[in-house]
Request: fold
Amino acid sequence: MSLTIIIIETVVMTLAFTAMILIPLIRNPVWWIHDYPKDIQEEYFKTHERVPSEFFSKTVLIKKSCAVLFALVLLLALMKLAGAYSFLSALALSYGIWLFIDWYDCLFLDWVLFANLKAVRLPGTEHMDAAYHQKRYHFIQSLWGMLIGLIPCLIGAGLYAWLFC
Reply:
């Protein structure tokens, strides 16, 4: 496998992930309301119509499932492009990229941008600086992301090994 290709793939995936998150978030912060801490959600719902925000609600499951399926297809293409040669190399590559993006999401997008970018604050919660700076909440969400990421990465590595090895 080529390290240069892996680095390029990771950078491209990180940029795509950032765009996929930030563009809808800046246009309409309510789109990602299920990813906001509960105290921010509750403050928002005091003055706005309640929308599904629980992890297992139909809306959230559809959004997350589409994202995971999209990630699976992209990871398969990235494994092929990088020249993965076995199930384990495909899994290491795909999960490595997943982990990088998961940590980037937590450490930069959530802890820096989300906490400080006023454009992503839900209407009526602009005053909740402490709630937007909750590092523990985003760290725990990142741990869940690491666990959830195993699913498409294992499936993708299995499909890759079945199709190409």
The mean pLDDT is 91. The first helix runs from residue 3 to 27. Residues 3-164 form one domain. The chain has one domain: 3-164.
